[in-house]
Amino acid sequence: MRTFYSFTVILGLSFFVSSYNRIENNTLSYKKTSTTLAFNNETDIANIEKANDFFKRYSDLKKYKSDVMSLYKNRTLGSIWFDEDEINEFGSVLYEKAKKTNDLVIPYQNEIDKLFDASSENNLSKTDADMLLSSLYVVYTKKSNADKKKLSYNDMLKDFLNYSTIEESSAATNLDAKVEYDQYYKLEDVLKKYKKLDRSHKWKPIVPAESPYKDLRPDAVSSTISQVRTRLYLLGDLKQDSKSDVYDRELMDAVMKYKVRNGFKPNYILAEEHIKEMNIPLSEKMETLKLNMERCRAIAAQIAASDEYVLVNVPSYEMVYVKNGKIQLTSPVFVGAPLTKTTIFNGEIDRIVFSPYWTVPQSIVQNELRSKIASDPNYLAEKNMEMVNGQVRQKPGPDNSLGLVKFMFPNSDDIYMHDTPSKTLFDFEKRTFSHGCINVKMAKELAVAMLQDYPEWTQAKIDKAMAGKVENSFKLSKKVPIYITYFTSLVNENGEIGFFQDVYEKDKELTGESAVAAQ
Prior knowledge:
The chain is of the alpha+beta class. The protein is built from 19 helices and 16 strands. The protein has an 8-stranded mixed beta barrel with strand order 3-4-5-13-11-10-6-14. Strand 4 and strand 5 (326-336) form a beta hairpin. Helix 4 packs across helix 6, helix 4 packs across helix 8 and helix 9 packs antiparallel against helix 13. The longest helix is centred in the middle third of the chain and has 23 residues, at 282-304. 30% of the residues are buried.
């Protein structure tokens, strides 16, 4: 994590280093009881006291004081590990290298960890943070460069502050790139940006000009528009904030970008629900990001071990097919209704079934079909259904509820993915319509993509299998992992964050909000 501090602190450190060097070069020592030492000004004295205070507060570092201070000699800018108000790449590399050094005891590790933890609050001054990292550098160098004792720490630091250090670290990191699901790091980056935005105090509630609220459309003129414009600028959907209260072309593009990444219906209407979403406090957004970072941890090992997989995310109503680390296909889906929720679990797709029969679950037969069959003798025939061994099933065809293809992955809940003839349902924003199965808009395209490694399955053969009157099941020689997930925030391929509706209220369950609401 890069940490932010006031610019005045680094000036203080600069004065302090300069003063320390002058005093050291003149072999002077300062004692509070002395009245004979002459300093150039009171600022020098104050900064020397500040340094002494640092080593007094961090007493375990006193033995490194001389070595640490040697690093600041002739560094007129003061800070070593910061670029302006952020920890620089060298500071991050130092931290990672130190953590990976065997048997290295890091003094004040908790304080240092917080500097790089996006989810932790950090109240250290920039002076303290920089000197802690310099102390870490000395400890790390003593351990890792025992054979270079003839070189001063300052000389070794010159070698360390070289971009080859960053390149070496990046190469090493790439070897472990699959230790975590990459979404974890993307969400972490967004969390850093949101924490910075929160500290800026620029996030103000949007107060609609009209009450009751009226939908805003292109060319509308309203003070609400200028507030929305500022919000989308802060979120990165707009490159500049003109402050205009006219709903112009520039804002239209930003609204569309905002809606698409957050799973809203892609149009230019600014409804009350959009204003409410924009007004969710940053603190809540950051908690959502942290929660979903933890969800990433839960599936990191499985994702890392899979060179090919299907991921279905319920809150965003989206399916992604990945192969060799690259996204091959993305498709909208609809999932189980709140009363028949899609189960969140991992499985393995072992079969693709073309022109499937649909065996109607007994619950649907009892609750929905029984009375219709009793009142209309031709009902089954009209719906292309038949009775087989006491069970109702629908024959293959374009009107089959499973569509033209389904993807099977054995599980105790009898959930699977399939095509659907009800394509208009994908036009809805909230898509919780099924009895638990996952309906895929681009099911045919998914079948084609998954069968690319099976040369016998040509496009012509797939088309014919889908148009058949008899079910055709193909067993995959290599099972494909499928992850049915519940991420209420995700970063897309363009690096844009999306926040999605907590459709099954799982976020509330984890944060305890449901319990509070019930009281």
